[in-house]
Amino acid sequence: MTNWTRKDLLALYDLDAGEIQLILDTAQEFKKVSERRVKKVPALRGKTVVNFFVEPSTRTRASFELAEQRLSADIVNMSASTSSLSKGETLLDTAKNIEALQVDLIVMRHSAAGSHNFLAKHLRCGVINAGDGAHEHPTQALLDMFTIIQKKGRIKGLKVAIVGDILHSRVARSNIWGLLKLGAKVTVGGPATLVPKEFRNIGVRVCDNLKDTIEDADVVNLLRIQHERQREAYFPSITEYSNIFGLNRETVKYLKPDALVMHPGPINRGVEVEACVADGPQSVILEQVTNGLAVRMAVLYLVAGCLEK
Ligand code: CP
């Protein structure tokens, strides 16, 4: 039986299979809370959580905030533009001032890879990574795995394909670590310029065409092209990318009939996926969002519990 011993959730790279399974099992219990008439428990009563989002977010931010409310925490929401970061204060000074207000947990999204690891070393309060640059997005991968288990009953032995801008994707990295640790076979596919061959060194299959990437997959996770992190032209045009790597009315025929179509959002409709697929019978995209709430409740609960020890 695994016990949770971390005051922070920084990366799935850091966790072992038992810790990942513990979060997923705990999320299963919290999913039941969200299905009750009164969707609230007192698990984080008396705890204060600051949601500090230095990069934009719809799903992760709303999901963390709702998860904290359902656990009865006190919440403060901050963004970069409304914080003193915009006046030149350092990230560490901002975080230490937040901590000085007897805050228990900081949930942060930041464009700098490793910023959470840096803060976690300097703060007594817990730090939860809601996405750091192209490094990791652990709660996204956890909710993706939770959704796969809900639909397929297991992770071990499944073939999971991740398609798109792997190079700039924190979602891809967290999924790869989590899926490999739970025994899935992972393939990444996309333009050769956006799919680092180095992933082969950790046991990931690397493809540079869509059909080979997805045709035997049990799960296909589509990624957005991350223009905000690209510093050069990695492919000739969006239209060409869409024609070659987009999942559309024609290319969806490569999929096994029971393959799941996933996407972390935000979707660029008509680029990596057409509406007929994103809203089609194989899509579980909105179920991923729903499951994010239970997964984030589980993470908050486990990390806050560790702070009391
Ligand atoms: N999946 C995800 O991180 O979405 P947001 O950027 O909207 O939080």
Write the layout of secondary structure elements.
Layout: H1 17-34, E1 48-53, H2 59-70, E2 74-79, H3 91-99, E3 105-110, H4 115-122, E4 126-132, H5 138-152, E5 159-163, H6 170-181, E6 185-189, E7 205-207, H7 210-214, E8 219-222, H8 238-245, E9 260-262, H9 275-278, H10 285-307
Parallel strand pairs: 1-2, 1-3, 3-4, 5-6, 5-8, 6-7, 8-9
Helix pairs in contact: 1-5, 1-10, 2-10, 5-6, 5-10
The structure holds phosphoric acid mono(formamide)ester.
Task: Please give a structural write-up.
The protein is globular and about 55 Å long. The mean pLDDT is 95. Helix 5 (138-152) crosses helix 10. It starts with 16 loop residues before the first helix and ends with a helix. It is α/β, with parallel strands linked by helices and 309 residues long. Strand 8 (219-222), helix 8 (238-245) and strand 9 (260-262) form a beta-alpha-beta unit. It is 37% helix and 15% strand. It has two domains: 12-136 and 289-307, Rossmann fold; 138-287, Rossmann fold, CATH 3.40.50.1370. The chain binds phosphoric acid mono(formamide)ester (CP). Phosphoric acid mono(formamide)ester is lined by residues 57-61, 131, 137, 140, 264-266. Residues 57-61, 131, 137, 140, 264-266 line the site of phosphoric acid mono(formamide)ester.
